[in-house]
Automatic annotation (TrEMBL):
Residues 71-213 form the Multidrug resistance protein MdtA-like barrel-sandwich hybrid domain. This is Efflux RND transporter periplasmic adaptor subunit. It comes from the Bacteria. GO terms for molecular function: transmembrane transporter activity. Gene3D superfamilies: 2.40.30.170, 2.40.420.20, 2.40.50.100, Helix hairpin bin. Keywords: Signal. Residues 217-307 form the Multidrug resistance protein MdtA-like beta-barrel domain. It is found in: Cell envelope. The keyword Ligase does not apply. Its main location: other. GO terms for biological process: response to antibiotic.
């Protein structure tokens, strides 16, 4: 049977409790003294860029496709047997250069026959005119009847008409003979030949012999939404966007692989109507293509110089975020050094900056570095930097991050 503990050992905890209660205020005071002695955290460093208004060229990036400047489908205008092909497929030809030769023998014979008919008609005309000349003085002397003279005049007139018809026949026969040599109506590059020597062709047949395509210059057809075109026109009328009168609009191309086409094009015209299916307007530009780099049918992106925005404000893209409602926001340090959040409206990206239409003013200091460590109402350590320093990656926020790393 275990022995009970001595009764004198049980009340020791109760005896120490008053001492603990007396020590609590002393411990709390010591904690306050330690917290007071701890130094306050320094304000977070941020870098800001002061917004300066300026003239900014406005560009529109539009999708489009290349198209040939001119296309000629070569078809025979006379019937006959192909005697010779006078070009090499896929090469450049000049306007008027011979392409094919059709057998000219039948057309030479037709021309000779027409010339003979013309000679016979001219001989008949000469005889009729001589008869009329002889009868004219005799009519006054009543040596020839008036009826005979009138008949001689009519025969001469008929002979003149026959000569005119014969000359027209000669001209038609000569044209047909010339058309036996098929020439290129334009300068350009030839396609493959659809017929070979020895083939029988007919005048104005449905199938073309080949196609000649002019690629220098080359056309680029781009589409722009009608709403965007209307917005540009409203900005111009309001004076927010300026463009010189009569100035040609420059166009630059980005090819499908992302490379930049080195030559600059010019905008030619815009369609006067809106496509009902797509709600867009087609614009056409011409580009020099001396090396044939651009081929018809290529998908490209065209950048058009729409105009120059006056007193425009540009904000670096890293300074713009979006809130829960999807609105574009940025942080601004006010005159008292306090961070304030602004809801802004961005129109388009220009390089690595946003063109801002509302929400900011000239002279505002926008936070571009250290945004993760500040919020609305905080007073940070502010250093103003330039856009060049921002692009180079310098600033107090970057230095602080490097020091911590």
């Amino acid at each position: 049977m275990p022995k009970p503990k001595p009764p004198s050992a049980r009340p020791r905890l109760w005896q120490a409790l008053p001492l603990l209660l007396l020590a609590l205020p002393f411990l709390a005071a010591c904690k306050d003294e330690v917290q007071a002695a701890k130094p306050a955290a320094p304000p977070p460093p941020v870098s800001v860029v002061r917004l300066q208004p300026g003239s900014v060229p406005i560009q529109s990036v539009l999708p489009g496709r290349t198209a040939p400047y001119q296309v000629a489908e070569i078809r025979p205008q006379v019937s006959g047997l192909l005697q010779e092909r006078l070009f090499r497929e896929g090469t450049e030809v000049e306007a008027g250069q011979p392409l094919y030769q059709i057998d000219p023998a039948p057309y030479r014979a037709a021309l000779a026959s027409a010339e003979a008919n013309q000679a016979r008609a001219e001989a008949s005309l000469q005889d009729a005119r001589a008869t009329t000349s002889r009868y004219r003085p005799l009519v006054g002397q009543n040596a020839v009847s008036r009826m005979a003279y009138d008949k001689a005049v009519a025969v001469a007139a008929q002979a003149e008409a026959e000569v005119a018809a014969a000359k027209a026949s000669v001209q038609a026969a000569r044209i047909d003979l010339e058309r036996t040599r098929i020439t290129s109506p334009i300068s350009g590059r030839t396609s493959r030949s659809n017929l070979t020597v020895g083939a029988l062709v007919t005048a104005n047949q449905a199938a073309e012999l080949l196609t000649v395509t002019q690629l220098d210059p080359i056309l680029v057809d781009v589409t722009q939404p009608a709403e965007a075109l209307l917005r540009l026109r409203r900005d111009m009328q309001a004076g927010r966007l300026l463009r010189g009168e009569g100035e040609a609009v420059d166009v630059r191309l980005t090819l499908g692989d992302g490379t930049e086409y080195p030559l600059v094009g010019r905008l030619q015209f815009a369609e006067a109507t809106v496509d009902r299916d797509t709600g867009s307007v087609t614009l056409r530009a011409t580009f020099p293509n001396p090396d044939g780099m651009l081929m018809p049918g290529l998908f490209v992106r065209a950048r058009l110089e729409a105009g120059v925005a006056q007193n425009a404000l540009l904000v670096p893209q890293q300074a713009v975020t979006h809130n829960a409602r999807g609105e574009a926001t940025t942080l601004v340090v006010d005159e008292q050094g306090t961070v304030r959040q602004r809801v802004i409206e961005t129109k388009q990206a220009i390089g690595n900056q946003w063109l801002v239409s509302t929400g900011l003013s000239a002279g505002d200091r926008v936070v571009v570095q250290g945004m993760q460590r500040v919020r609305d109402g905080v007073k940070p350590e502010v250093r103003e930097i330039t856009l060049q320093e921002l692009e180079q990656g310098s600033g107090p926020a970057v230095a602080a991050a490097q020091a911590r790393g």
